Protein backbone atom coordinates (compact mmCIF):
# COMPACT_ATOMS: atom_id res chain seq x y z
CA UNK A 1 0.00 0.00 0.00
CA UNK A 2 1.36 3.39 -0.98
CA UNK A 3 -0.93 5.37 1.26
CA UNK A 4 -3.24 4.48 4.11
CA UNK A 5 -5.03 7.75 4.96
CA UNK A 6 -8.43 7.35 3.34
CA UNK A 7 -9.66 10.63 4.87
CA UNK A 8 -7.26 12.47 2.59
CA UNK A 9 -8.48 10.71 -0.52
CA UNK A 10 -12.13 11.19 0.44
CA UNK A 11 -11.45 14.91 0.69
CA UNK A 12 -9.75 14.94 -2.70
CA UNK A 13 -12.60 13.00 -4.32
CA UNK A 14 -15.30 15.11 -2.73
CA UNK A 15 -17.50 12.28 -1.50
CA UNK A 16 -17.98 10.79 1.95
CA UNK A 17 -18.80 7.11 1.59
CA UNK A 18 -21.68 5.57 3.48
CA UNK A 19 -19.94 2.25 2.76
CA UNK A 20 -16.17 2.86 3.09
CA UNK A 21 -15.44 -0.68 1.90
CA UNK A 22 -16.37 0.39 -1.63
CA UNK A 23 -13.57 2.93 -1.65
CA UNK A 24 -11.17 0.36 -0.19
CA UNK A 25 -12.00 -2.05 -2.99
CA UNK A 26 -11.79 0.65 -5.66
CA UNK A 27 -8.25 1.49 -4.57
CA UNK A 28 -7.08 -2.15 -4.35
CA UNK A 29 -5.19 -3.50 -7.36
CA UNK A 30 -5.52 -7.18 -8.20
CA UNK A 31 -1.86 -7.69 -7.35
CA UNK A 32 -2.77 -7.09 -3.70
CA UNK A 33 -5.36 -9.88 -3.55
CA UNK A 34 -9.12 -9.87 -3.27
CA UNK A 35 -11.47 -8.12 -3.25
CA UNK A 36 -9.80 -5.98 -5.91
CA UNK A 37 -11.10 -3.26 -8.22
CA UNK A 38 -11.49 -5.01 -11.58
CA UNK A 39 -15.27 -5.46 -11.38
CA UNK A 40 -15.69 -1.88 -10.20
CA UNK A 41 -13.46 -0.72 -13.06
CA UNK A 42 -15.76 -2.52 -15.53
CA UNK A 43 -18.81 -0.72 -14.15
CA UNK A 44 -17.00 2.61 -13.87
CA UNK A 45 -15.97 2.46 -17.51
CA UNK A 46 -19.62 2.51 -18.52
CA UNK A 47 -20.54 5.26 -16.07
CA UNK A 48 -17.65 7.50 -17.19
CA UNK A 49 -18.58 7.01 -20.85
CA UNK A 50 -22.19 7.94 -20.07
CA UNK A 51 -21.18 11.09 -18.18
CA UNK A 52 -18.83 12.14 -20.98
CA UNK A 53 -21.44 11.47 -23.66
CA UNK A 54 -24.09 13.43 -21.77
CA UNK A 55 -21.79 16.39 -21.15
CA UNK A 56 -20.77 16.59 -24.81
CA UNK A 57 -24.35 16.15 -26.05
CA UNK A 58 -25.48 19.11 -23.96
CA UNK A 59 -22.46 21.34 -24.70
CA UNK A 60 -22.31 20.76 -28.47
CA UNK A 61 -25.96 20.92 -29.63
CA UNK A 62 -25.07 21.03 -33.34
CA UNK A 63 -22.28 18.41 -33.39
CA UNK A 64 -22.96 15.18 -35.25
CA UNK A 65 -22.41 11.65 -33.98
CA UNK A 66 -18.91 11.35 -35.42
CA UNK A 67 -17.69 14.55 -33.77
CA UNK A 68 -19.24 13.59 -30.43
CA UNK A 69 -17.73 10.11 -30.62
CA UNK A 70 -14.22 11.45 -31.26
CA UNK A 71 -14.54 13.99 -28.46
CA UNK A 72 -15.73 11.35 -26.01
CA UNK A 73 -12.83 9.10 -26.98
CA UNK A 74 -10.45 11.95 -26.17
CA UNK A 75 -12.06 12.55 -22.77
CA UNK A 76 -12.05 8.93 -21.64
CA UNK A 77 -8.78 7.69 -23.12
CA UNK A 78 -6.33 6.11 -20.71
CA UNK A 79 -3.91 9.04 -20.55
CA UNK A 80 -6.73 11.51 -19.86
CA UNK A 81 -8.16 9.41 -17.04
CA UNK A 82 -4.69 8.90 -15.56
CA UNK A 83 -4.16 12.68 -15.52
CA UNK A 84 -7.34 13.12 -13.47
CA UNK A 85 -6.27 10.28 -11.17
CA UNK A 86 -3.00 12.10 -10.51
CA UNK A 87 -4.84 15.32 -9.76
CA UNK A 88 -6.91 13.41 -7.21
CA UNK A 89 -3.72 11.79 -5.85
CA UNK A 90 -5.12 8.29 -6.30
CA UNK A 91 -1.71 6.78 -6.98
CA UNK A 92 -0.49 7.65 -3.51
CA UNK A 93 -3.51 5.85 -1.98
CA UNK A 94 -3.53 2.64 -4.00
CA UNK A 95 -3.13 -0.76 -2.38
CA UNK A 96 -0.66 -2.69 -4.53
CA UNK A 97 1.11 -6.00 -4.29
CA UNK A 98 4.88 -6.12 -3.67
CA UNK A 99 5.72 -6.58 -7.35
CA UNK A 100 3.68 -3.59 -8.50
CA UNK A 101 5.05 -1.48 -5.66
CA UNK A 102 8.59 -2.32 -6.65
CA UNK A 103 7.97 -1.56 -10.34
CA UNK A 104 6.24 1.75 -9.59
CA UNK A 105 2.75 0.63 -10.56
CA UNK A 106 1.22 3.59 -8.74
CA UNK A 107 2.65 5.81 -11.50
CA UNK A 108 1.45 3.69 -14.44
CA UNK A 109 -1.28 5.20 -16.62
CA UNK A 110 -3.18 1.92 -16.99
CA UNK A 111 -3.38 1.31 -13.25
CA UNK A 112 -4.32 4.91 -12.50
CA UNK A 113 -7.01 5.02 -15.18
CA UNK A 114 -8.52 1.75 -13.96
CA UNK A 115 -8.49 3.02 -10.38
CA UNK A 116 -10.27 6.22 -11.40
CA UNK A 117 -13.02 4.25 -13.14
CA UNK A 118 -13.30 1.98 -10.09
CA UNK A 119 -13.69 4.99 -7.81
CA UNK A 120 -16.44 6.36 -10.06
CA UNK A 121 -18.26 3.02 -9.81
CA UNK A 122 -17.81 3.01 -6.04
CA UNK A 123 -19.43 6.44 -5.76
CA UNK A 124 -22.22 5.35 -8.09
CA UNK A 125 -22.98 2.26 -5.99
CA UNK A 126 -22.66 4.20 -2.74
CA UNK A 127 -24.83 7.20 -3.59
CA UNK A 128 -26.60 6.71 -6.93
CA UNK A 129 -26.47 8.31 -10.36
CA UNK A 130 -27.20 11.97 -9.59
CA UNK A 131 -24.82 12.19 -6.62
CA UNK A 132 -22.10 10.45 -8.63
CA UNK A 133 -22.65 12.81 -11.54
CA UNK A 134 -22.33 15.87 -9.28
CA UNK A 135 -19.05 14.60 -7.87
CA UNK A 136 -17.46 13.29 -11.06
CA UNK A 137 -18.31 15.85 -13.76
CA UNK A 138 -16.14 18.61 -12.20
CA UNK A 139 -13.14 16.28 -12.53
CA UNK A 140 -13.53 16.51 -16.32
CA UNK A 141 -14.12 20.24 -16.50
CA UNK A 142 -10.56 21.08 -17.50
CA UNK A 143 -10.53 18.43 -20.20
CA UNK A 144 -13.93 19.54 -21.48
CA UNK A 145 -12.80 23.16 -21.60
CA UNK A 146 -9.74 22.16 -23.65
CA UNK A 147 -11.90 20.64 -26.39
CA UNK A 148 -12.84 22.93 -29.30
CA UNK A 149 -16.37 23.63 -28.05
CA UNK A 150 -18.43 25.24 -30.79
CA UNK A 151 -15.78 24.36 -33.35
CA UNK A 152 -16.22 20.63 -33.83
CA UNK A 153 -14.04 19.13 -36.53
CA UNK A 154 -15.92 18.69 -39.77
CA UNK A 155 -16.15 15.19 -41.14
CA UNK A 156 -14.33 14.18 -44.31
CA UNK A 157 -17.39 14.25 -46.61
CA UNK A 158 -18.27 17.77 -45.48
CA UNK A 159 -14.70 19.04 -45.92
CA UNK A 160 -14.44 17.50 -49.37
CA UNK A 161 -17.80 18.95 -50.45
CA UNK A 162 -16.86 22.43 -49.20
CA UNK A 163 -13.51 22.28 -51.01
CA UNK A 164 -15.23 21.40 -54.30
CA UNK A 165 -18.03 23.95 -53.89
CA UNK A 166 -15.52 26.72 -53.18
CA UNK A 167 -13.99 26.00 -56.61
CA UNK A 168 -17.33 25.48 -58.38
CA UNK A 169 -16.47 21.91 -59.22
CA UNK A 170 -18.85 18.93 -59.42
CA UNK A 171 -19.73 17.21 -56.16
CA UNK A 172 -18.36 13.72 -55.47
CA UNK A 173 -20.22 10.53 -56.32
CA UNK A 174 -20.20 7.64 -53.86
CA UNK A 175 -20.78 4.03 -54.81
CA UNK A 176 -20.97 0.83 -52.82
CA UNK A 177 -18.28 -1.51 -54.14
CA UNK A 178 -18.95 -4.51 -51.91
CA UNK A 179 -20.16 -5.71 -48.55
CA UNK A 180 -18.93 -8.79 -46.73
CA UNK A 181 -19.10 -10.58 -43.41
CA UNK A 182 -21.87 -11.92 -41.21
CA UNK A 183 -25.06 -9.92 -40.77
CA UNK A 184 -23.98 -8.70 -37.33
CA UNK A 185 -20.46 -7.81 -38.43
CA UNK A 186 -20.62 -6.55 -41.99
CA UNK A 187 -17.80 -4.65 -43.67
CA UNK A 188 -18.69 -2.17 -46.41
CA UNK A 189 -16.33 -0.99 -49.16
CA UNK A 190 -17.25 2.28 -50.87
CA UNK A 191 -15.60 4.39 -53.54
CA UNK A 192 -15.56 8.17 -53.77
CA UNK A 193 -15.24 9.49 -57.33
CA UNK A 194 -14.40 13.04 -58.41
CA UNK A 195 -14.72 14.16 -62.02
CA UNK A 196 -12.78 17.40 -61.57
CA UNK A 197 -10.06 16.82 -60.61
CA UNK A 198 -10.27 13.16 -61.70
CA UNK A 199 -9.56 11.42 -58.40
CA UNK A 200 -11.05 8.32 -56.79
CA UNK A 201 -10.35 6.33 -53.64
CA UNK A 202 -11.92 3.56 -51.61
CA UNK A 203 -12.65 3.21 -47.92
CA UNK A 204 -13.98 0.55 -45.55
CA UNK A 205 -16.34 0.80 -42.61
CA UNK A 206 -18.81 -1.11 -40.48
CA UNK A 207 -21.63 0.85 -42.16
CA UNK A 208 -22.04 2.36 -45.60
CA UNK A 209 -21.90 5.84 -44.08
CA UNK A 210 -18.59 5.14 -42.35
CA UNK A 211 -17.17 3.57 -45.52
CA UNK A 212 -18.10 6.69 -47.50
CA UNK A 213 -16.42 8.85 -44.86
CA UNK A 214 -13.27 6.74 -45.12
CA UNK A 215 -13.31 7.03 -48.92
CA UNK A 216 -13.74 10.81 -48.71
CA UNK A 217 -10.84 10.99 -46.26
CA UNK A 218 -8.68 9.01 -48.70
CA UNK A 219 -9.55 11.43 -51.51
CA UNK A 220 -8.68 14.38 -49.27
CA UNK A 221 -5.27 12.83 -48.63
CA UNK A 222 -4.67 12.69 -52.39
CA UNK A 223 -5.77 16.32 -52.71
CA UNK A 224 -3.58 17.42 -49.79
CA UNK A 225 -1.19 19.62 -51.83
CA UNK A 226 -4.20 21.41 -53.33
CA UNK A 227 -5.76 21.83 -49.91
CA UNK A 228 -2.61 23.52 -48.65
CA UNK A 229 -2.23 25.65 -51.80
CA UNK A 230 -5.66 26.52 -53.25
UniProtKB/TrEMBL annotation:
Physiological role: Digests double-stranded RNA. Involved in the processing of primary rRNA transcript to yield the immediate precursors to the large and small rRNAs (23S and 16S). Processes some mRNAs, and tRNAs when they are encoded in the rRNA operon. Processes pre-crRNA and tracrRNA of type II CRISPR loci if present in the organism.
Species name: Pseudoxanthomonas daejeonensis
Subunit structure: Homodimer.
Name of the top EC class for this enzyme: hydrolase
Highest taxon of source: Bacteria
Keywords in alphabetical order: Cytoplasm, Endonuclease, Hydrolase, Magnesium, Metal-binding, mRNA processing, Nuclease, RNA-binding, rRNA processing, rRNA-binding, tRNA processing
All copies of domain RNase III, residue ranges: 6-128
Family label: Belongs to the ribonuclease III family.
Gene: rnc
Reactions catalysed, as given in the entry: Endonucleolytic cleavage to 5'-phosphomonoester
Keyword match RNA-binding: yes
Sequence ranges assigned to domain DRBM in this UniProt record: 155-225
UniProt binding sites for Mg(2+): 41, 114, 117
Pfam annotation, one family: Ribonucleas_3_3
UniProt cross-references to NCBIfam families, sorted A to Z: RNaseIII
Localization (cell): Cytoplasm
EC number: 3.1.26.3
Keyword S-adenosyl-L-methionine part of the UniProt annotation: no
PANTHER family in alphabetical order: RIBONUCLEASE 3, RIBONUCLEASE III
Annotated protein name in UniProt: Ribonuclease 3
Cofactor(s) required for function per UniProt: Mg(2+)
